[in-house]
Amino acid sequence: MEKKDEAHYLLKWIELNDKLVKKGFTWGSVEEDEDWHQYMSYDIHTYSQREIDRINRVTNKIGNVYNKMYHKLLDGSQESNVWKSQLGLPVHTWDAANVPSDFFSYFTRMDFIVNEDEIKLVEVNCDTPTGYIESSIVNQIICEEYGFVSPNKLEENIKRTWAIISKQYNLSNDDTVHFTSYGWHDEDRETVLFNLNNSGLHNTKFIAIEDIIVSDEGLFDQEGDRINFLYRLYPLEYLVDDKDSAGREIGLSFLQHIADGRVILINPPGAFLMQSKAVLALIWSLRDDSGIFSFEERESIRRHFLPTYLKGDFPFENEAYVAKPIYGREGGSVEIFDSFSKLVEKDEEDYYAEWQKVYQQYVEMPNKTVNTWDGEYSGKMLVGSFLIGGEASGLFLRVGEKITGNLSMFCPVAIEKW
């Protein structure tokens, strides 16, 4: 874009951003390394209804595969215990992760590489997925601004899902469901409040994770009310290291309360279990096992999963691959290697660097060029697809580098006009 076009773009961006801030979306730009980066793009990417339906079908099929694998992992057999030992869960989370639920995760986002008719699963974010507000409120407003129709249905499926949760956990109108995240983190807090406001529940209360009182008897809020049901946007692996100001290991107590049933978690602990990327390797290794998966499920695995392995099974010779920490988030500590096993791309986040890794076949994401306040930006597009209450519910597109990190840009999506 020329300078005058960049100025026009920026004015429009500010207009849209101001409108969205009033709706709770306050991270249209993000500060990192003492500089501001654009996160929200308003260039709309369109898919035909046929393409959207295909992504939705794949999302539902993979959800079924994951749920099948989840219940196999919890069936108590010797085989399942061996499989669980390969997932790399921190030891202190084992008891909590074994708490059963009907469905492995009520709120999930799958990340796909979509190249025309080919849809490949990169990973499954089933423990603490984000992107709801972008895919609902932001996507809807930008689509309306330019006369497009959004394909996303997050709000109605969130309400439907909480009705399912209420039935499965025997929630009554007198029960209070607490919702938690970091209180200081705008994106996490507003994402949780979005879920709360669309839940349709009678009694809800938001509490910052840092304000939860952990005692020997259980969890309590600041008013002294016991927390019996807790929706959390907070990774369970963080609890392993959490201490209070006196050095007391309250995170370990928190995990024990989960394991002992003193608090019921939503998403359930099974979502943390299945968040391990080692599950991708496990499912790939069992892709031909008719004793676990149906014919249709085996076909879905072969067609849509990327070959993924643990180090002991490392098979990649003469082809590019990706090394990923099993619990890495936002591209943290991901490495890309070429066909000669030479490192060509690396995320410098070191929090997850020491975690066990999986090794996945590298597939190039499609190119996508969007306008920004600095001119045109050409990056790689990753397609997120929400599975809410077991049903495909909306798309979440991001454009960034070869490793989709924290500074990738949200790109709105719409149904293609005829």
Query: Based on helices, strands and strand pairing, what is the structural class?
Result: alpha+beta
Low-confidence stretches: none
How many beta strands in the DSSP annotation?
Answer: 21
Count helical runs: 12
Mean pLDDT: 94
Largest sheet: 6 strands, antiparallel
Radius of gyration: 21 Å
Name the overall outline.
globular
| Strand content bin | 25-35%
The termini sit apart by 28 Å
Helix percent band: 25-40%
InterPro entries: GSPS_pre-ATP-grasp-like_dom (IPR005494), PreATP-grasp_dom_sf (IPR016185)
Protein name: Glutathionylspermidine synthase pre-ATP-grasp-like domain-containing protein
Keywords: ATP-binding, Ligase, Magnesium, Metal-binding, Nucleotide-binding
Domain Glutathionylspermidine synthase pre-ATP-grasp-like: 18-415
What does this structure look like?
The chain has a domain at 308-360. Helices cover 33% and strands 25% of the residues. It is built from twelve helices and 21 strands. Strands 4, 5, 17, 18, 19 and 20 form a six-stranded antiparallel sheet that branches. Strand 1 (29-32) and strand 2 form a beta hairpin. Helix 2 (49-73) packs across helix 12 (295-304). The longest helix has 25 residues, at 49-73. The radius of gyration is 21 Å and the shape is globular. One of its GO terms (molecular function) is ATP binding. Residues 18-415 form the Glutathionylspermidine synthase pre-ATP-grasp-like domain. Keywords: ATP-binding, Ligase, Magnesium, Metal-binding, Nucleotide-binding. It comes from Peribacillus simplex.
